[in-house]
Amino acid sequence: FFYTGGYDKRVCRVSVDGTVVNQYKGHDKAVNSLVEFGGGTRLVSGSWDGTAKVWNVETEACEYTMPGHTHAVCVAILPNGEMVTGSQDKAIRFWQDGRLVRTIEGAHEDIVRAFTVIKQDPSAAHALPFAFLSASNDCHIKAWGLDGTQLGDYVDHTAFIFDVKASSVHVGRVFSGGDDKLLKVWDVRLTGEPAQQSILHAGTVWQVCELPNGDVVSCCEDGVVRVWTTHTHRMASEDERELQKKLAHDSAAEEMEKRATPAEFGDLRDVSEINSVRGSRVGQTGLFKEGNLVVAYQWTGSKWERIGEVVGKDKDQQPQGAGGSTISVGDRMYEGDQYFPAGQYDAIWPVEIGSGGSKARLPFRIGDNPLVVAEKFIAREGLGKQAVEQVASFIRQHAATLQPAPRAPPTQTQPTSAAPPSAAAASSAAPTSQAHKPMSNGTKPASKHTKHFPIQQGLIFKTSNVDAMHKKLVEFDEQLPEGHEGKMTDIEKVYLREAMARFKHAKFLDQEFRNCEMDLFFKKFPHWPLDKHFPVMDLWRAYSLHPQSTDMHKGSDEGWHLIVHAMKTAKADPNGNAGVFALRYMANLFHFPTNKYVMMRRRQQVLDGLADAELAASTNKNVRIAFATILCNYAELFQERPDPEGEQQLVSLIGEHLSNETDPESFYRSCVALGSCLVKDASLGPWCRDLEIGVSLTQKSSPFPASEQRCRDIAADILKLIPPP
To answer: Which is nearest to 659 in space by CA: 619, 689, 702, 692?
Structure first.
């Protein structure tokens, strides 16, 4: 058996085949810590409700509750039978049979995150003097005796420590993981010494665990679980190890780029002096000049290892450092979204949202009203109004000591105009600001704006029939043979039912989907056969409008595997419902800035994937409308973030689509996308002429009935922007 706890406030005892044998209910908030004891007869749980509870494993009864903590409670069982708890109040408490025995106030200077009990070797001449370790957000791991005496302090992490585990195989060996993206290996017999080894990851290391054979498992923010070994015959291939190393180093370089500011580059050492500089700790990152480049290096304990260049996103607009090197203004440059315009800010803070550790970027300029900025932030992230004051307080606190960022040269601006009418099948996304939008260098704005274009807001497919979706998912699941990898278990059917209730909730955006539900959506259902895929794609489409969907696109692959799966589905069923909902899901990915940014970064692959003959010739008008909606959303994206190469690729794809178009709604949306590109950059006119797009516009708009006069009008407006042959 094993135990699980999570957002649903329950603790479950689960058999190896996935059957839930027992459930323990009583916590008011998420369960975050579990330990079995008493020879398997008892279980203690810690929760975000500020309590720890002891349960009878067989009867499921709560035998006693230990209150008095603040927020999340971590638990451990000591060798003498006492229980130890820690929480956000920084104290460590000792309990015996539900009775508080003693308290160490101020045991740490920040949240107590985790405990681990030290393995003792009875055959050793000298036992370790301490019984357990605690880890905290204060970056310290501390050793304690059974009486609460502090006997050691281990400092090497540079950010929050989220987990610590003592080895059961090697006496004195301890593993820890934290927000500095490092898995560290310690020998706690060496008091006061730094960690013996630091292994860089691509994101925060949330949890570590030792396997019975001595291998170590790390759970990383990028969604990957990795197993580490000292045995060469169990090591992954060299290519796989090099890929892991590259991902970690790329992430470290990106983090360094975000943190870098011009003031940090004034006195950088040249790389020729690197051998004369010794790092202060393993994992330390340092900057050195290599000619006209600024390069990040990491200290391994014996030498500096090159990570990568530190550069800005637009070298032409970056200030110049010593020696003429291009330097980054780091996370003070913001790419822009529908609430915060692109440009340079005095600070961009990573703000943790929710209890799962997800972070969102909050841009701020000195002089901004903290309350107004907070309201924009919670609107963008889909948070409740109750969070406004908390976010505003955060801004006031961090803005008090803020220094202005050096300003990059201003960009040209182009006024925007009203958005085109949206069709009933899709509703407009969040309101777009009326502020001027930046233009890329070298593009020439066309002077002709019409009532049809340029598009100013993306389009989404919002309407859902949740009951029908749920019914079809259950029906198709029942048709799967036993043993099929996509078939739901009984408990997963419960998860699905509870998830569907969240979709129907009046406050859908405030609902919180559980990991077990998302595993169903994105890990199990994709294994269903194609003829049963359309409700799965419809589910993805609906979920993509929830703020939590952005978490799927924050890992190392940015959720690219999901987009690839949707494109494959659309191509495999270009005339069916699976193709419709797959393309609608992709259109909805433009709704939130995080997901939209992935569609921008993967623009070439997405548009190449959509350039499919069968999709272009689909006989299903809903497929064609969804296809044209994606084109519209890319055109709107290019208004915000100019991409000349992408605009040419988009115009070419629009031309191919229009040459086969007979549906008036799809024709109109494709024309909105095309007209938006032409208004933004007049140099695309000759490109359209060479592609003979004008011929397609004339031929395809003429047969539409009088009720579709808008199609002829928009075609006429576009033809004015395309020079004659």
So the answer is: 692
